[in-house]
Amino acid sequence: MSPANAVTQVSRFVGDAAGLEKTLRLLQSLAQVVAACSLTATAAAPWLQARKQFALGRRYLRVLKFIDAFTFAFDIFSRRSGLLAVLEFGRWSCLGIYLLLESFTILDEMGVVSTTWAAGLFLEAMKFWFCSLVLGIFSGILELLGLLGKNAGLGKRVEEKHQKSRKNKAEMTQGRPTERDATRKKIAKRLFIDGCDLFIPGSATGWIPTSSANVGMMSVGSTVLSGLDVWNRVNV
């Protein structure tokens, strides 16, 4: 890849709203890690300020994102049924509530106003984000179990009906991932991302006792993985 092409791809990524959000999130996470590893409060202060500004920039980009989350939840409620649908409905509903509550505190974060309830409301918002991630993890596990069950049933039928041609089919499809394999990898990736992100609201609420450095590193990992999807989308 030539330097000019690399710069163009980076420009496309940062120029995309989702790509810009991931970039700011990565910078925020790195600033948090550096601040947590600083030896003195004086050394950590500029990094904490940078983290705060990167976080504020991200909030501008998602100030109305609760609408999308509630739309997803309503679509699932009206079109699907079953345990998986219930988990997904709860996941997107909790995410929408988190984003809605968070949006009420943005003026305090900007320094425009100073209220007594913003900090408490933000903490409640983080609790809903935590619940959203937990429901998403349960949903992903249920999807994986469903895929494994389908694989077992399909394998049994194929063995019974096509035992003689099994070897030839294996040779023809060797090294070629199936659609189910791709789906399984996608779900596993989402589970890893949600698991890493769980430390952010978990730490804020006190439900997951951990250090600020660990939270920052988990956030770096989830941001890089989720950012790759955006990178591939804008640079196809």
Describe the structure.
The protein has 236 residues and is mainly alpha-helical. It has a domain at 1-61 and 211-236. It is built from eleven helices and no strands. The chain has helices at 3-15, 17-37, 41-61, 65-79, 83-103, 106-110, 118-161, 166-173, 179-197, 199-205, 212-234. Helix 2 runs antiparallel to helix 11 and helix 4 (65-79) packs antiparallel against helix 5. The relative contact order is 0.12. Keywords: Membrane, Peroxisome, Peroxisome biogenesis, Transmembrane, Transmembrane helix. Residues 159-181 are annotated as: Disordered. The chain crosses the membrane at residues 89-107, 127-148. One of its GO terms (cellular component) is peroxisomal membrane.
Separation of termini?
14 Å
Oligomer kind: single chain
User: Average pLDDT, to the nearest integer?
Assistant: 89
> What portion of residues belong to β-strands?
under 5%
Q: What does the overall shape look like? A: globular
SSE succession = HHHHHHHHHHH
Radius of gyration (CA) equals 22 Å
- pLDDT below 50 for ≥5 consecutive residues: which ranges? none
Give a short account of the largest sheet.
none
Helical amount among residues, as a percent range?
over 70%
Number of helices: 11
How many strands? 0
What structural class do you assign from the helix and strand content?
Answer: mainly alpha
Subcellular location: Peroxisome membrane
Pfam families: PEX11
Main location: membrane
Keywords: Membrane, Peroxisome, Peroxisome biogenesis, Transmembrane, Transmembrane helix
